[in-house]
Specification:
alpha/beta; eight-stranded mixed sheet; 14 helices; flat
Length: 467
C-alpha cells in the first residue's frame, strides 16, 4: 500500500470515504483469492456504471488500473487526474468509429501495465445495464490475455480474477454492496494450441470467464422471472437459512444471501422448465396475493407479525418514542443537509440517459456529493467561525456528517413508522382480512416447500445419493 503513487492513494482514500457514506456496508467475499503480486486481469460484471470501478479499486490492497471511455479524457484536468490514477483510455465504436485504431494502442498500454506486474480491471460486457443478467462476454479480455501471455512464451504468469458485483438496491442511498472474488484463472492453461487456432482458444477462455462471473452473481436467463425470484426470497429466505443445504463454508450475510438467491433462481428456472402448469398456478396465486397486499397498503413484515399483536403494538410504540426523541437531531441535520441534497438530486436527474434509469444513480450521487457536501459544509463552518471561537467551530464541524446520517435514517424510519401504523390499523380493524392474507401466504409457502422437496430429491437422484 505504501508503494502506491501519492495521487492514487489520495483519490482512493476520497473514493473510499464517499463509498462509505453512500453504502451502509460493502462486503468483500473471498478477497484472499486476489494475488497480491504479479500481473492480474480483473474481469467483472458491470451493473452500476463507474461505481463498479470504485468498489473494485477500493476492495483490494494493490493498485488497480482501469480501462475507460476516451470521452472522459476530453477535459484536460480530468485527463491529467485519470492518467495519474492509472486509467487507460479506450475508444469504443460509439465514441468515434473513425478512430478505432486506438484500440490497438489501448491493448499495448494495458500490456505495459501488466508487464510491470500490476493489475488491470476490465468489464467484458462492454456496457452497464440495469437488469440482473450477465450480457454476452466480449472476446477482447481473452484476446488481450492470451496475446500477452503468448508474447512471453507462457512465462509471464498472468492470471484473470473473475469478480461478481451485487447491488441489492443500487439506486438507494445507504444500501449494500457485495464484491465476490472468484478463483484466479491461469492464462497459460489456455495457451496450448493458441498459435494454430487462436479463435478457438479465445472462445474457450471467454466462455470460462463468462461461466466464472455468472457463478459469482445472480444471473437470470429469463428476466421476466426476476419478480418471481424476488417474491420467493421474501416468502422463503428465512426458511432457507434455517434449513440450509446450499452453504458449506463461513459466509458474510450478503454473500450467504447471494448463494441462497442463486439456488432459488436455479430452482425457479427448473420449475418453469419441468412443471410449467404448476409454475403458472403459483404465479397466478402470487399475483393475487401481492395485488391484495398493495390494495390494503400492507407489507410482508407487518403481515407476518400480525399474529403477535402485542409485539406489533409494542414495536409501533417504541418507534414512535424513538421518533420523538430523535426529532431535534434530525431537524438539525436536515437544516444543513437539505440544500446539498436537493443539488445532488438535481444532478442525478440530469445524468440519467432515460427516465427511471438506475445505473447512473450511485455514481452521480457519489461524485456530486463528494463536491457539494464538503463545499456546503465548509461554507457553514466558515460562517459559524465568524461568530464563535475555534473550539465551538471544531465541535460544530464534527457534528455535521453524523447529523446528516441521522437525518436521513430518521426520515426513512419515520416513513416506515407511518406505513406500519397505517397497516396495523387496517389489520386490527379487519382481522378477517389479515387471517385470509396469512392463509394465502401459508399456501404459497406450502407450494414452494413441495417444489423444493422435489427439486432436492431430483438433485440427490442425479448424484446417486439416497433420498
Amino acid at each position: 500500500m505504501n508503494s502506491l503513487p501519492l495521487i492514487y492513494r489520495i483519490c482512493r482514500w476520497l473514493i473510499k470515504a464517499a463509498l462509505g457514506f453512500y453504502f451502509s456496508r460493502i462486503e468483500r467475499f473471498h478477497r484472499e483469492r486476489v494475488p497480491l503480486t504479479g500481473p492480474v486481469l480483473f474481469a467483472s460484471n458491470h451493473p452500476n456504471s463507474l461505481t463498479d470501478a470504485f468498489v473494485i479499486g477500493t476492495s483490494v490492497p494493490r493498485k488497480v488500473n482501469f480501462v475507460a471511455t476516451v470521452q472522459l479524457f476530453r477535459w484536460r484536468p480530468c485527463r491529467w487526474l485519470l492518467t495519474h490514477c492509472g486509467v487507460i483510455a479506450i475508444n469504443r465504436v460509439r465514441d468515434d468509429p473513425r478512430a478505432m485504431r486506438t484500440v490497438k494502442e489501448t491493448f499495448e498500454a494495458c500490456y505495459r501495465v501488466l508487464e510491470r506486474g500490476e493489475a488491470v480491471a476490465i468489464f467484458p460486457e462492454g456496457i452497464t445495464r440495469d437488469d440482473p443478467m450477465l450480457q454476452a462476454v466480449k472476446p477482447g479480455t481473452a484476446r488481450m490475455a492470451l496475446e500477452l501471455e503468448d508474447r512471453h512464451g507462457g512465462k509471464l504468469g498472468l492470471k484473470i480474477v473473475p469478480v461478481g458485483l451485487t447491488f441489492p438496491a443500487k439506486d438507494r442511498y445507504r444500501s449494500e454492496a457485495l464484491v465476490n472474488f472468484g478463483e484466479p484463472i491461469p492464462v497459460a492453461d489456455f495457451l496450448p494450441g493458441y498459435a494454430q487456432n487462436r479463435h478457438e482458444r479465445i472462445q474457450a477462455l471467454s466462455a470460462e470467464i463468462e461461466r466464472r462471473i455468472k457463478s459469482l452473481m445472480v444471473h437470470l436467463p429469463h428476466l421476466e422471472r426476476a419478480r418471481i425470484v424476488e417474491a420467493v426470497k421474501r416468502l422463503y429466505l428465512d426458511r432457507l437459512w434455517v434449513g440450509n443445504t446450499v452453504i458449506h463454508e463461513p459466509v458474510t450475510p450478503l454473500s450467504g444471501e447471494l448463494l441462497l438467491t442463486q439456488a432459488i433462481t436455479t430452482a425457479v428456472e427448473q420449475a418453469f422448465e419441468k412443471h410449467p402448469a404448476r409454475a403458472a398456478e403459483f404465479v397466478r396465486r402470487l399475483g393475487h396475493y401481492e395485488t391484495t397486499l398493495r390494495k390494503l397498503h400492507l407489507s410482508e413484515e407487518v403481515l407476518t407479525h400480525f399474529p403477535e399483536r402485542r409485539r406489533l403494538l409494542r414495536q409501533s410504540l417504541a418507534w414512535a418514542a424513538a421518533a420523538i426523541l430523535a426529532a431535534p437531531i434530525a431537524i438539525y441535520g436536515w437544516i444543513h443537509r437539505l440544500i446539498p441534497y436537493l443539488l445532488v438530486r438535481f444532478v442525478v436527474g440530469k445524468a440519467a440517459r432515460v427516465p427511471g434509469e438506475k445505473t447512473h444513480v450511485s455514481t452521480a450521487t457519489i461524485l456530486t456529493g463528494l463536491i457539494v457536501f464538503p463545499v456546503f459544509y465548509g461554507l457553514c463552518v466558515f460562517v459559524f467561525h465568524q461568530f464563535f471561537g475555534w473550539k465551538a467551530t471544531v465541535i460544530y464541524a464534527c457534528s455535521l456528517p453524523p447529523a446528516s446520517l441521522v437525518a436521513y435514517y430518521y426520515l426513512r424510519e419515520l416513513q416506515r413508522l407511518i406505513a406500519s401504523l397505517r397497516a396495523a390499523a387496517v389489520l386490527l380493524g379487519a382481522p378477517g382480512s389479515a387471517r385470509t392474507m396469512l392463509a394465502w401466504r401459508s399456501e404459497l409457502i406450502r407450494l414452494i416447500d413441495a417444489e423444493r422437496t422435489e427439486y432436492l430429491a431430483a438433485q440427490a437422484a442425479a448424484k446417486g445419493e439416497p433420498i
